[in-house]
Each structure stands twice: as structure tokens, then as C-alpha cells.
């Protein structure tokens, strides 16, 4: 097996996938796999992890077992592999979605040697008949995708992932590849230990993706901001994440009534609707999916141009993974998060009642999220620091870099932090240290008697938020660090000890205060692509072909391939094979129609090939109406409806009156019966039967202000108007 590491990998890369060069550490990792060694692969989303098991699987004898968490993810990857080959048997998945006949066909292809990649869920591996079958075949290696699911400190822990190693031992030992896009040092150690590969070779690529723009916005009229942003990015694909199913439904409806092609996706929907909505997004029938984090792991759509978080998520690992779904093709990707500390408080409440250890992990992960959101430091620097990587230069592509806050001399503040960390023997977390310095007393401060030590309140001229900001920037400067084993405890680094002995100038920035921040929100429109007319024609043809073949458009050709076509104008099969990301298989399977289109375009426009790249800049219905009607149909309390939309009751009633006046029948009996007895209802109802006007004030005078409130009269008037008029 070791000899296979000497193969001409560049030749095989071009032959099977149409690429001229490997990315980053891909080649080294592939050589390690071909040499029969275990591999831990940590690469950001879009960094090319899949190729590290796909290419060796095609080269090596036997079948590679790819362990993957989601059926949708398996299906997408199998489709993608088949489209790089002329033989559909090259890749299969084995899971509960297959019929008996399909399962028989899969096993026949594997036994015959056709199948080089077999995708299975960990649950499928545990089935005895699958174990017995897999014992019969030659296994080239095991690849554990989304390996962060193994760790309780990961953002998507799945207990069944803990059973993978014992099952491998039972089926037959072969090299193991663990792959993930997000893992802190602690999570990485958990993965390697659990898979029995602590001695495996580690391949880490930088987490920095220069094409992603990061921004955090104060949560002021978020729906309005989102509508404005999506319309400014018209026609581009995007994902909007919400924490609750209710908010997903509500926001998707809001976008729809504002003329945006959007659909919801969450685990509470029936599977047919959910998968149907996902397919419409993949097939470009809709531009935007509004989803809970149940959406995404099964999506391999390369041209997602924006990812918006309606609420800041529960962990930075989850956030990084979700934003990583933008710009996977190397094109633009905008990552916008809306931040309000109220959302953090809601998440903290959700943790109540969970086991203490789980609450502790959850709070620590939330604290890191708050730190990220409120910081004025380069956002990729902060993210990379969290994953144990140092970004030397600022990214110059995030809100904090493009709109920097005023800096101040921080040397003395950092000395204060280091002295206090040392004074309490490096046994406490950042929020506790900030409380000591600012002189804030709470239960923890009192229980450790830290309100009696000499450094308590040493920095009380500044608040806790300020000192937390100083601590975060000291972490980025590597003057202090967080203990991996005792998550969150601050330790002074050797560099920090040197700083105490010989301090030097350090520039710091104050954190954002989003509670006080209101500003006009604007976005720089994204740049276009080579020969925009041809590029659009190619995309239109791709959509047509995709519908005919009933496959997602990106399975045919991805946008970077179209950009290359729009520069090179390939008009023969040989030329098409040389286009980035095409290769022999795709050119043979899909190329002809696209070659014919390009040839016509070149002839009709008298184009001399090749041509330099041409870049061009691309620059109500009541939002509440549908939500209110749906909520009333579900018999929700008007108080709850008002609170969820942040409306005064009087404003909500005005909205309902407008709905009734427009001809929609509304039944509020369930609510009215709670606040008015039958006799009072009859009295008001009869009044309006005889009244000369619909005036509420006239009704109050006639019926008695001590007997009824204005809201009572308005509710009964709505009932009357709805029943009599609609």
C-alpha cells in the first residue's frame, strides 16, 4: 500500500475531478491515506475535505466506508461522485431509505468491485446483517465525516458516534480518517482518543477564508434589515438561521409577503415538505431558505452567497460551521449576525433544568459567543484564536476592520488583568476576573471572599464589560490563555510573564455597545463575473438541464467553471475538459449542450478567444397580516401575539380591524369568551346591531365606561363586523 503514495496524484486529480492543483494540505493528507496511516483532517468548510477520501478511494483497491450523519448529505455526495464518473455504481449509500431491491443492487455492485465509496450512517453500521456483509469485502479505509459529532464539547454531539471504533474492530481494522470543519483543541483530542488514533497524523488547514465577510449588527428592526439586504442581493442564494421553529415560519412568511422567494425548513415539518423545500433551494426555484440548524449539514450547495443569523447562535463552533456554508466555491460570501443580549438571556433560560455539567458547558460556549459579538477586534482573528490559530494581519474584510473603533493605550490595563489573574492563582474564568477588577459583588465573589482581597475594585473606574474586552484582547495577544482541560480558567503564558517584567505599548479598542447603537445599514453590492451575458446564459441552461435530469444545478457545473468558460470560451470537447472543475467525466456527461451554446454565442457576437475578464457591479402588504391570521387560527392568546410582534394591544387590534375591513373573516370567540361573559357579549353585540355609527367612544358612553374597557368594545366590534360583514 505504501508504494501507492508514489503515484502521480496530479494526473489522477485532473483525470477524475478536472482540477490542476491541490488545495493547501490536501496532497499531503492523501499521501498519508495511501500510505496506510490514520489521519485527522481539520479543514474549514469549502477547504476540500471530501477530496481527501474521494481520490484515494478511486485509486486504492477495495471499497472505502464513509461514515456520515445525514441521509441527505450521503445522497448529495453520492450524486456528486457519480457525476464525476460514467458509472453510477462508483458510489452508493446504505441506509434505511433504500428498498430491499435497491439494497440488493448496492451489495451486488460492492461485491463486483464497482463501488469505491460506500456511505453509511453510524446507526447502519451497528446492524448485524451489515456488519456480516462488510466483513466479506476488502475495505480500503474508514472515513468519519463530521467527526466533531463524537465530542460532548462539539456543537453537534451525537452519542452513536461514540460507538464507531468498536464497530470498526468488529468488521475489520483498516486506516481511519477523521474529518471535520470545526474543532477546538479540546474537541480534536476527544475525537482522536475516541477513534483510537492519538498517533494519527494531523492535517490542519487555516480556518481563515478571505472570501467571507463577517459582520454583527444590533438587532434593531431585523426583519426590515433582512428584507433590504436580500433585495440588494437579488437572485443570490442565501440561508437565514433562526433558533426556533416558530420564528422560522414567521420570518419565511414575512419574506414571502415582501416579494422574496423564500421557504421554511425545520425538524417539525413533515419530511416530504421539508425535503421538498430543500430541493427547491438546491434547484434554484427559491433564493432563500429560513431554517433552524437542522438545515445545512446535508447541503453541499457551493454558491450560497449569504448566511444570516437572526439570533446569535449557542456556540462559536456552530456559528463557524453555519457561516462556512457561504461561498464554498471561493466566490463572495457575506455572514451577518444580529445580536441582542436579550437573546443570550433566552438561551440561558433554556438551559435551566438540564444536568449541571451540561449547563456549565453551555454557559461557557455562550460566553465565547457574547465575546465574539461584542468585540471590536478583527472578527476572523477572534474566530481563529478560538480554534487555536493565530492570524497575524487583520482580515480587512469584516465590519470591525472596515469601520475600526478608536484605539487607546492598553498597557496598564493588561498589566492589571495579569496581576489579578496571578493574585488568584490562575484558578478562575474571565467573567470572575472582570468582576474582581471592577469591584462587582455576586454570589461567587462572596463565596471565595474575593471582595476582601487587595485587588478587589482596583479598576472600578471602568465597568465589567470594559474589563472583559481587555481580557479578550489579551487572549488574542497570547498573553493569557484558557486551560483546555479546565475549560475557561485563565492562565498566564510565558509571553505574558515576559510582558509583566518588561511592558510595551499595546493598542486596544472598546467593545461595541449594541444596546445604544442605531445606524443606517448598507451593503456594498457584490462584484459580477467574467462576460456577464454568457455567464447568465450558462446558468439558465444549467437550470434547464437540471430540471430535465431532476438533479441540483450545481451537480452539473459550478459557478467557478462557468467563470472560466466565460473567459476561455471553450467550443470543443477537448477545450471543455481543460476548464477548471470539469474533467473528462463531466465534459462527456454534460458538456455538449454548453459547448453548443458557447459556440453560437461566440459566432453571433464575433468574439475573439480568449478574452480578458469583464467585471461589472451588480447592484406591502402588511408584514404582520399573515402571521396574525395564522396565530388566530391556532387560537393563540392576543396577548402572546402582541408580545411576539412587540406590539401594544391597541396596535394589534388596529391590525386585526384592518384585516376584517379587507374582507377576511376572523373568529375571536376563543379569546373573547375568556374576558367577557355571554350576557356582556350579547349586550355589546346588540348595541352594534342598532347603533348609528361604529364609534367606540359612543358605545362606551352608551354602555358604561365602568362596565367595559375600550379593548372590550373593540373586540366585540371586530366580532360583529366579521360575522355580519364577511
In spatial order, strands of the major sheet run 3-4-2-5-6-1-7
Classified by CATH, the class of the largest domain is Alpha Beta
Which oligomerization state do the chains in this entry correspond to? single chain
The number of domains: 5
Helix content: 40-55%
Corresponding CATH superfamily of the largest domain: P-loop containing nucleotide triphosphate hydrolases
DSSP helical segment count: 34
Distance between the termini: 78 Å
Mind sketching the topology for me?
Layout: H1 9-17, H2 26-34, E1 39-42, H3 49-59, E2 63-67, H4 71-82, E3 91-94, H5 100-112, E4 117-120, H6 122-125, H7 128-134, E5 139-144, H8 164-171, E6 176-180, H9 185-194, E7 201-204, E8 212-218, H10 222-232, E9 237-241, H11 245-257, E10 262-265, H12 271-282, E11 288-291, E12 304-309, H13 316-323, E13 333-339, H14 341-351, H15 356-374, H16 379-386, H17 399-402, E14 407-409, H18 411-423, H19 430-438, H20 443-447, H21 464-476, E15 480-482, E16 490-492, H22 494-501, E17 507-509, H23 532-549, H24 553-556, H25 559-568, H26 573-577, H27 583-605, H28 625-633, H29 638-644, H30 649-661, H31 669-675, H32 678-690, H33 696-703, H34 710-725
Parallel strand pairs: 1-6, 1-7, 2-4, 2-5, 3-4, 5-6, 8-13, 9-11, 9-12, 10-11, 12-13
Antiparallel strand pairs: 14-17, 15-16
Amino acid at each position: 500500500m505504501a508504494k501507492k503514495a508514489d503515484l502521480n496524484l496530479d494526473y489522477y486529480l485532473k483525470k477524475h475531478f478536472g482540477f490542476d492543483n491541490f488545495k493547501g494540505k490536501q496532497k499531503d493528507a492523501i499521501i498519508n491515506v495511501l500510505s496506510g496511516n490514520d489521519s485527522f483532517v481539520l479543514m474549514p468548510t469549502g477547504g476540500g475535505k471530501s477530496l481527501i477520501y474521494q481520490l484515494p478511494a478511486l485509486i486504492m483497491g477495495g471499497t472505502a466506508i464513509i461514515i456520515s450523519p445525514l441521509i441527505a448529505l450521503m445522497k448529495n455526495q453520492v450524486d456528486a461522485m457519480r457525476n464525476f464518473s460514467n458509472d453510477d455504481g462508483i458510489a452508493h449509500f446504505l441506509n434505511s431509505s433504500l428498498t430491499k431491491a435497491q439494497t440488493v443492487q448496492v451489495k451486488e455492485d460492492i461485491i463486483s468491485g464497482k463501488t469505491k465509496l460506500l456511505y453509511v450512517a453510524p446507526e447502519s453500521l451497528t446492524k448485524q446483517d451489515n456488519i456480516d456483509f462488510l466483513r466479506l469485502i476488502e475495505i480500503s479505509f474508514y472515513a468519519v465525516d463530521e467527526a466533531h459529532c463524537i465530542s460532548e464539547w462539539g456543537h453537534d454531539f451525537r452519542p452513536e458516534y461514540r460507538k464507531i471504533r468498536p464497530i470498526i474492530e468488529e468488521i475489520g481494522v483498516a486506516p481511519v480518517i477523521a474529518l471535520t470543519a470545526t474543532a477546538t483543541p479540546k474537541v480534536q483530542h476527544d475525537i482522536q482518543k475516541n477513534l483510537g488514533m492519538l498517533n494519527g497524523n494531523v492535517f490542519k488547514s487555516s480556518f481563515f477564508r478571505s472570501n467571507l465577510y463577517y459582520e454583527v449588527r444590533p438587532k434593531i428592526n431585523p426583519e426590515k434589515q433582512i428584507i433590504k439586504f436580500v433585495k440588494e442581493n437579488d437572485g443570490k442564494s442565501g440561508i437565514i438561521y433562526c433558533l426556533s421553529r416558530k420564528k422560522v415560519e414567521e420570518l419565511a412568511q414575512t419574506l414571502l409577503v415582501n416579494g422574496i422567494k423564500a421557504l421554511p425548513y425545520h425538524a417539525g415539518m413533515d419530511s416530504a415538505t421539508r425535503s421538498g423545500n430543500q430541493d427547491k433551494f438546491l434547484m434554484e426555484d427559491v433564493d432563500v431558505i429560513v431554517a433552524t440548524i437542522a438545515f445545512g449539514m446535508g447541503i453541499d450547495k457551493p454558491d450560497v452567497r449569504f448566511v444570516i443569523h437572526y439570533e446569535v447562535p449557542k456556540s462559536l463552533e456552530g456559528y463557524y460551521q453555519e457561516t462556512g456554508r457561504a461561498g464554498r466555491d471561493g466566490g463572495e460570501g457575506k455572514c451577518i449576525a444580529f445580536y441582542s443580549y436579550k437573546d443570550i438571556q433566552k438561551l440561558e433560560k433554556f438551559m435551566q433544568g438540564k444536568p449541571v455539567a451540561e449547563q456549565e458547558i453551555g454557559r461557557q460556549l455562550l460566553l465565547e459567543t457574547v465575546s465574539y459579538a461584542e468585540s471590536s477586534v478583527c472578527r476572523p482573528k477572534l474566530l481563529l484564536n478560538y480554534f487555536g490559530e493565530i492570524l497575524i494581519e487583520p482580515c480587512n474584510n469584516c465590519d470591525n476592520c472596515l469601520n475600526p473603533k478608536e484605539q487607546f493605550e492598553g498597557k496598564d490595563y493588561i498589566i492589571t488583568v495579569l496581576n489579578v489573574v496571578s493574585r488568584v492563582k490562575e484558578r478562575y474564568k474571565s467573567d470572575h476576573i472582570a468582576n474582581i477588577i471592577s469591584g462587582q459583588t455576586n454570589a461567587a465573589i462572596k463565596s471565595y471572599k474575593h471582595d476582601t482581597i487587595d485587588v478587589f475594585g482596583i479598576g472600578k473606574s471602568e465597568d465589567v464589560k470594559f474589563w472583559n474586552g481587555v481580557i479578550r484582547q489579551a487572549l488574542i495577544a497570547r498573553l493569557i490563555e484558557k486551560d483546555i482541560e479546565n475549560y475557561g480558567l485563565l492562565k498566564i503564558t510565558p509571553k505574558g510573564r515576559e510582558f509583566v517584567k518588561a511592558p510595551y505599548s499595546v493598542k486596544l479598542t472598546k467593545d461595541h455597545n449594541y444596546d445604544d447603537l442605531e445606524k443606517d445599514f448598507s451593503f456594498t453590492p457584490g462584484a459580477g463575473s467574467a462576460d456577464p451575458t454568457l455567464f447568465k446564459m450558462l446558468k439558465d441552461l444549467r437550470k434547464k438541464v437540471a430540471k430535465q435530469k431532476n438533479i441540483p444545478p450545481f451537480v452539473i457545473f459550478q459557478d467557478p467553471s462557468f467563470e472560466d468558460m466565460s473567459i476561455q470560451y471553450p467550443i470543443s470537447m477537448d477545450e471543455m475538459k481543460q476548464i477548471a472543475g470539469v474533467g473528462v467525466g463531466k465534459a462527456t456527461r454534460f458538456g455538449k449542450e454548453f459547448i453548443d451554446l458557447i459556440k453560437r454565442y461566440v459566432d453571433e457576437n464575433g468574439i475573439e478567444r480568449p478574452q480578458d475578464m469583464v467585471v461589472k457591479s451588480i447592484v406591502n402588504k402588511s408584514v404582520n397580516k399573515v402571521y396574525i391570521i395564522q396565530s388566530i387560527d391556532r387560537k393563540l392568546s392576543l396577548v402572546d401575539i402582541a408580545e411576539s410582534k412587540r406590539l401594544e394591544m391597541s396596535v394589534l387590534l388596529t391590525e386585526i380591524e384592518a384585516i376584517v375591513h379587507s374582507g377576511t373573516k376572523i373568529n375571536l370567540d376563543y379569546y373573547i369568551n375568556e374576558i367577557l361573559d355571554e350576557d356582556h357579549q350579547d349586550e355589546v353585540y346588540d348595541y352594534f346591531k342598532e347603533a348609528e355609527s361604529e364609534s367606540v367612544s359612543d358605545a362606551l358612553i352608551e354602555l358604561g365606561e365602568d362596565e367595559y374597557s375600550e379593548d372590550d368594545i373593540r373586540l366585540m366590534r371586530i366580532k360583529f363586523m366579521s360575522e355580519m360583514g364577511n
